[in-house]
Backbone:
């Protein structure tokens, strides 16, 4: 069964950071359902890229997170399955 997974990628605010993160999703054949990017930290040197991907299973989400963690300038990758509210 496929689900929605949330990824939060913390990286240095470099011009190539965002395209490198998006490239990982493209390599796995996914387009994020949602994406939010925010600069912060001391003097705006940090970048946080929050995305949601649909149509993944747990194993594929783990592969995506591992690949994201290998990107140059990435400091941390957090990910989790999105929980749906009970009806």
Residues:
């Amino acid at each position: 069964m496929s689900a929605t997974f949330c990824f939060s990628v913390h990286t240095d605010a470099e011009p190539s950071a965002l395209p490198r993160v998006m490239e990982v999703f493209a390599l796995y054949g996914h387009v994020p359902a949602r994406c939010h990017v925010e600069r912060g930290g001391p003097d705006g040197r940090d970048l946080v890229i929050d995305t949601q991907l649909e149509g993944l299973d747990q194993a594929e989400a783990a592969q995506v997170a591992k690949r994201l963690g290998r990107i140059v300038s990435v400091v941390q990758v957090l990910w989790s399955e999105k929980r749906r509210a009970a009806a």
In short: The helical segments are 17-27, 58-69. DSSP finds two helices and four strands in the chain. The CA atoms of residues 9 and 77 lie 5 Å apart. Strands lie at 3-12, 34-40, 46-56, 74-81.
